[in-house]
Request: fold
Amino acid sequence: MALLDVRGLCARHGAVPVLDDVCFHVERGEIVALLGGNGAGKTTVARAVSGLHRPSSGEVMFDGRDITRCDPRRIVQGGLSHVPDGRRVFPSLTVEENLTLGAYLDSRRKNVVAERREDVYRTFPRLAERRAQRAGSLSGGEQQMLVIGRGLMSDPSLLVLDEPSAGLAPASIAALAEDIAAIRAAGTAVLLIEQHLQLALRLADRLVVLQEGHVVLSGSTAAVAADPRIGRMYFGDGNPLQ
Amino acid sequence: MSGGVALQAFLSGLALGTAYGLIAMGFSLVYRLTGVISFAHGDLVVGGVFIGVLVVLGSIPVAAALDVVHSVGLAVLIVAAGAALSAGVYLVAVRPFLPGVGHRSTRGDVLGWVASGLAAGLLIREVLGLVLTQDAYAVPDPLRLGSLTPSGVLQLPGGGTVAVRTLGVIGIGLAVGILVERLLVLTPVGTAMKAVSEDPTAAALLGLPVRRLVLVAFVVAGALAGLAGLLISPDRSLGVDDGVVLGLKAMAAALVGGLGSVRGALAGGLALGVIESFVVASSVLGPHYADVVPLAILLIVLALGRRGLRSPLREDPE
Amino acid sequence: MTVELAHHLYLLIAVLGLALSVSYGGQPVLCQGAFLAVGGFGVVHLERAGLPLAAATFAAAAIAACAGYLVGLLTARLRGAAVALSTWAFAWLVYALLDAFPAVSGGSQGLVRPTPARLNSPFFGVTVTLTPWAHVAVAGTLCLLSLAAVARLTRGPAGLDWAALREAPALATSLGVPVLRRRAALFATTAALAAVSGAGITVLLGVAAPSDVSPLLSLQLFVAALIGGTARLWGPVLGLLVIAMIPPLGDALAGAVGLPAEASGGVLTALALVAVPFLREPIERLAAQWPERAERPREPAEHSGESATPTASREGVMLSAQGLDVGIGETDILTGVDLEVRAGEVHALIGPNGSGKTTALRALAGALRPKGGRILLEETDVTGAGQFEMVRRGVTRTFQRTVGLERLSPHRQVLLGVRGGTPVPFAAVRHLFGSASMQDHAAIADREAWRALHVTELAQRAFDRPGTLGAGEQRLLQVARAVATGAHVLLLDEPAVGMTGPERAALARVLRRLAAGGVAVLLVEHDLALVYGVADRITVLDRGRVLASGTPESTAADPAVRRIYLGDADPSSTHA
Reply:
């Protein structure tokens, strides 16, 4: 049974339909990349999965349970952690406070929280150096590490990353790719939502391509990358970049 | 104005300002977490005091001397009534209009919480007005600070006098204010509240109980308002309708201190109290201007306040 | 009974005035009672100073209008909640002032003037005694006049401005509507009507007392204006009926339960106020069932099909940025950006998310003040010119998100753009009095609107309800509104978001048509297929700097561009 199974998901913003019959799944321990341009509905998928957006129909199964209408708190508790786009750190809190909040639901078990925090520091040594610094003063790449680390603090079995590469320098993107690979190696499945084709191709086991709210392509990374439609989708017909 | 009179005015201004500061702290705290300007906030002060008095005395207020049990009971009741009223205002008048999961708007229904906040305040005033029909009432003092010295007053250098109670109000008010501010910085609940105020969506995604934290903020704000009422009401006669202007003055204090900053609100309250006290003591302006000047300050600060993208009160240019 | 009727009719004037700001302007104004006070106390003092009654009323209304304009300007930049707070504070400030100056207010007793009043005209040699029935006639006439004026204004240019102020102030600014001045003018009208109402009530009752113009009255009038909810003419009337019902209901309730009558009236007001926010949505849904009766002017015959006239025939560089540095707060977004947009060209600005494309566009449109560098419009330095001025100079932008005016037909929305781009002085007032020159202006504006609709292929949908337009058509409508301002330079922020394939093709046609007409188009876009299909020139931004700039071929060949778009392991080149 798949870890995350999204079936026939439809969603709208007010009267405007954004998602239409979106289906895909994520197995335990794999990386699935959800690709698509601006306005394709990627972020809405993430928001629907994590309980921020009520879908108009369809269902989201996680770990064998129907979480379609659960609130975010229950979903985090169940082991799905959503790291939203835009590097949303709590700027006036320190790195350490940001991380601690990530384990809010387990905050009674102080030593467990401390252990997980050390794990995050091991994955992101840069954060350990800056643990007493305010999150707002970190660089873009460090803030991205921090939100991912914060998302890991709830010890999730699935991490949903929304556009982690947006606005990062190429060097930071390379580091990010290694970090995501390390997270998967530690046993956490990742749903990677990206526009950055190269990052997705490098990391993902399978790709799901979204266009105007529909899934237009999905399959193993090699198969999708070889499909001429992906090039056309990104660069159009008769485009000199090809 | 002679030095002695000035010192006297300064100290009574600090006492008044402590109360404004406590009310403003709650106002700022609520604003920080929800973006809601709590129009009923001033009425919590008056509501807390009168509910406490009505319950303890069992009758309309008289400036009775209370025994210890009744004093403690009254003090606790006033603070608790403020907190309870505040929680009620949140649940009935604010919460239905806040943005929630699945809502389209990110800012909620502004006109909704403005109107229902005004309505909640009016309802508190009018319901109390059914029982309390006079313009103003003298309220008993549960703290009995005046009885610390035989005369209840201290001589000041320069010829003025100050009531011991005034010093007590400053001491208690500032102590509680600073304590609450520190608790909000140092405790995990305070950290969680800060997280909610900075990014409610990210906080919700981490499993923080956003709604419950907001309720806690309203309860703390209401308790602070009740405490402010407890501190200042025995010094003056209090009327049911005084709450609105009290609330508006606290908003002025919160704005002067930088809206959303709890520490700034306390400082702003002190500043406003001292200004008001000097206005009243001055021979040019006098007591008539006690309400006029703070309200004018509120209008000016609102109109000319911080510009730019991050200003919470100005329209976003986008 | 007659006195009460006259009283309520006078109050209706105040409610109608308030509805202008609340329902039409979208500002929660909570100080109408204060302006009533200006009228009531003003008329008594001015009469004592020797003015005849009519002149005193007029003067009081003028004073209130000035005060209203001032308060309006002070609050015009604020968010709704802050407007509510400052007007509420203003109501209490005026109340505190009345309390502080018994010489002005007559203390708690108020100021008394003899009743019944006599209107005396030496010129005509007649004297009219204002009996209660005469008051009913005066107040009733004023109400009907205000209703008629509002109805006429809504259908004219003012109606366009109001819809934009209420529903999308940012859009209004981007189209050149002076939002602050419009809001202040609305506020002034609101205040003047309140003063007339206050003066009338004072003359009717023969007394002006502070307790009659307390902030509670402001709240009640606000409730009355809110109950109507949306911009409907019958709204204020209905609202006042509810308010008028409160005292008798309060009396009845008081009789039944044994409470003091005035107290129960206050409780009822509070309950009405509580009910309003909960009832607002159903009321608005009800109101939405009757859409604004839009006039459907026939399209002028000479403009049909593709015969769109070019707007500009100027050659060369229209808008250029030289070494532009832009930051938001502490963060630097753009550093040293050079950019040239030429007439008759589509210039695409591309780059990864967060590279500063939208910021560049906002800076060029005057919405952001650059920290360094220059912006030139042809030869003129326009660095630091506001958005408003840029629209007047012919530079208009669109937004990344779809900003809708849900109640206006596409035709009217496009007219709003025409009005913003080529303003007509005092258009609203001239329209109100049916000035002949306004009809010419209207005809010209209509032609401009149709031109914009044809260029953007929306002419078929001109009178459809905006809600029935598809997402792509909504995006085109944004372009149409900007085109209608008569812009020589269009700054378009991701117009293709949410468009389907055929809609993108339509957009490409529109862009080419605009360029062929001589317009300089700066296109911020993610969709590279669209960009490479239409652009004459491409600038690539990366983290706030220009990475490459030139023809589509040269940028496509640029290794740095290929790296950020395709990455090292280039998948598309392996199978291309």
Summary: Residues 261-288 of chain C form the longest helix (28 residues).
